[in-house]
Design a protein that fits this description.
alpha/beta, five-stranded mixed sheet, about 20% strand, binds fe (ii) ion
């Protein structure tokens, strides 16, 4: 007589773990065994019902259907569950002095134009307050890094990214800037605003059902990279924002909070950029640490995601 199979929940867990135990790649084996162990423990702890299990399948199906080259519902799930920030903290244990990273978010798009210093990423935004963001890219000893690349993106003053704005066709509020010999960069934009993350899908329903708000504090996104250094994916945040303490995606770090200073009188820098008062300035230096080894970056993954979205 054959042995009894699948008698208890724990029997199933043990058998599934045993089935993955011979996975040849050690890292994949570690991940699969950990995934099965924790996933089974979660289901047992909350005593998931069949109806709830089916609801989860429907939610994941809907999330997948929503994804395109302009929408990434799974990144939103990861961000709002705090998983993105846990991964970020594990992946970027920086030495003191290196600029801290934060979430990549779902709104980066490939193909932003390369702009000269002072180039305006907000040329179609007629309602935002003109803002000059400047600073330097430096190594950990404070030495300027020439030719560093800053990939910058931001929501419009309406609170929408270009990909969410049906009145726009192409890219807007995006640009790539290079540092000069002194490591300096200069970006012309408009004041960043706080905005709610997209809430017309399953992530929005989760936030409403759990009594959470969808707001993100005002910020500008950067990926800063240079040959020989580890790239940093980060934001700068407006110090005056009311949502700094309750960011829907948990991305705020104290070192990334920045003063956006209001000017009522002209300055030579503003005049050179053809900006009349009132306008704002923000000053932020990025510090890169040397690259230990070549590691796949978030932008490598973004290339693959974009290809998937374009195909979908
Ligand atoms: Fe954002």
């Amino acid at each position: 007589m054959p042995a009894q199979r699948n008698k208890t929940e724990d029997d199933i867990t043990a058998e599934v773990l045993q089935r993955f135990a011979e996975t040849p790649d050690p890292r994949l084996r570690q991940i699969m065994l950990g995934l099965v162990k924790h996933l089974h423990a979660f289901v047992k702890e909350v005593e998931l019902t069949e109806a709830e299990w089916f609801q989860a399948i429907e939610i994941l199906t809907e999330a997948g259907r929503m994804c395109s080259d302009k929408r990434q519902e799974f990144i939103l799930f990861s961000d709002t569950l705090g998983v993105s920030m846990v991964v970020d903290l594990i992946s970027h244990r920086k030495p003191d002095g290196a600029t801290e990273s934060t979430v990549f978010g779902p709104f980066h798009r490939l193909g932003a134009p390369e702009l000269p210093a002072g180039g305006n990423i907000a040329h179609l935004d007629k309602t935002g307050t003109p803002t000059l963001v400047s600073g330097r890219v430096l190594d950990l000893d404070g030495k300027p890094i020439k030719g560093a690349l800053l990939d910058v993106w931001q929501a419009q003053s309406s609170g929408l990214y270009d990909s969410q704005d049906t009145s726009l066709n192409g890219l807007h509020m995006r640009g790539k800037f290079r540092t000069d010999a002194e490591g300096r960069y200069l970006v012309r934009t408009v004041r960043p605003v706080n905005y709610p993350i997209p809430s017309d899908g399953p992530v929005g329903r989760m936030l409403r059902a759990t009594g959470r708000h969808p707001w993100r504090p005002a910020h500008i996104h950067f990926v800063v990279s240079a040959d020989g250094y580890e790239p940093v994916t980060t934001h700068i945040f407006d110090r005056t924002d009311e949502y700094l303490g309750s960011d829907a995606v948990f991305a705020v770090k104290d070192s990334l909070i920045c003063d956006f200073v209001l000017h009522d009188a002209a300055t030579s820098e503003a005049a050179r950029a053809c900006i009349t008062p009132p306008f704002l300035t923000a000053d932020f230096d990025f510090h890169l640490k040397p690259a230990a080894e070549h590691r796949a970056t978030v932008l490598d993954a973004q290339q693959r995601l974009a290809a998937l979205g374009a195909a979908g």
